[in-house]
Amino acid sequence: MDVSRRGLLTGLASLLAAPAIVRVTSLMPVKALGPPELVLPYTYGENETFSQLVTQTMRRHRSLVIANITENNALLSMLKERNRLT
User: Fold this and answer.
1) Considering the domain boundaries, does residue 77 fall inside one?
2) What's the gap between Cα 36 and its chain centre?
3) What's the total number of domains in the chain?
4) Looking at the domain assignment, is residue 49 inside a domain?
5) Residue in 85, 63, 66, 67 with CA at minimum distance from that of residue 75
6) Alpha carbons 7 and 5: distance in angstroms, whole number
7) Which of 13-17, 25-29, 59-63 tops mean pLDDT?
8) 3 state SS of 26
9) Interval 45-54: pLDDT, tens
């Protein structure tokens, strides 16, 4: 049986990259963060949909979002500097 150098290196690399099989007891334990009310204070209620949550959030923070877009947008800044934005 002849093994080329490339085949030998590929075999060794696959051994190094192969996932290890370990016992569950040797894994690091994961602790819970706490009750969901404390971990996720901004979750939506049972009768609300995700789109309602996004709509409410956008209504509350609309002025901040618009200010952030207009002040930090490179294209808008360039157009304002060149007086091409009305």
Assistant:
1) yes
2) 20
3) 1
4) yes
5) 85
6) 5
7) 59-63
8) helix
9) 666 677 777 7
10 Å CB burial of residue 53 (0-12, 13-18, 19+) is middle
Copy the structure tokens of residue 32. 């819970």
Is position 71 within any domain?
A: yes
Question: What whole-number distance in Å separates Cα of residue 61 and Cα of residue 45?
Answer: 20
Domain that holds residue 30: 5-81
Contact 66, 60 (CB under 8 A): no
- Following DSSP, what letter does each residue of 49-81 receive, concatenated? -HHHHHHHHHHHHHHHHHHHHHHH-HHHHHHHH
pLDDT band at 38 (very low <50, low <70, confident <90, very high): low
In a domain, 50, yes or no: yes
